[in-house]
Amino acid sequence: MTIKRNTNHRSIEEVRRAQKPLKQRAGRASQFFQEQVLESQRLTGQLMTMLQERVTQITKLNQALEVATAARMRAEDALGESETRYRITADVVPVLICKQAPIKFSLILTNDG
């Protein structure tokens, strides 16, 4: 019996030659992908650094606002107490006390004097 060789099949060498450009393209694609991953990691690191700096800035601003708010609340409380003391004093003094607006010439504060 004679074995016939199928001429439609490529030889192993022909297949290897055909695969070589595909392997090169795959290698370049893999290298490109690795470069993109490294660039993405670098940019992510930069963004994280920027984010942390911004969080630090905002935290400091919030602390300053808390201090300013507390100071304003203390000032408002002190002003309220001062106004109360003034009103009590003006109400118990047996003489007339009035305050006149400088331009309108109208009374803006009087007691029962």
Number of helices: 1
- Uncertain runs with pLDDT below 50, 5 residues or more? none
Q: How are the strands ordered across the major sheet?
A: 1-2
Tell how many strands the DSSP assignment holds.
Answer: 2
Structural class: mainly alpha
Distance between the termini: 140 Å
User: In percent, how helical is the residue content?
Assistant: over 70%
Based on the model shown, name its key terms.
1 helix; 113 residues
Structure description:
With 113 residues, the chain is mostly helical. The protein has one domain (12-110). The protein has one helix spanning 12-92; strands at residues 98-100, 107-110. Strands 1-2 form a two-stranded antiparallel sheet. The radius of gyration is 44 Å and the shape is rod-shaped.
Summarize the helices and strands and which ones pair or pack.
Layout: H1 12-92, E1 98-100, E2 107-110
Give a brief outline of the structure.
With 113 residues, the protein is mainly α. The chain is built from one helix and two strands, in the order αββ.
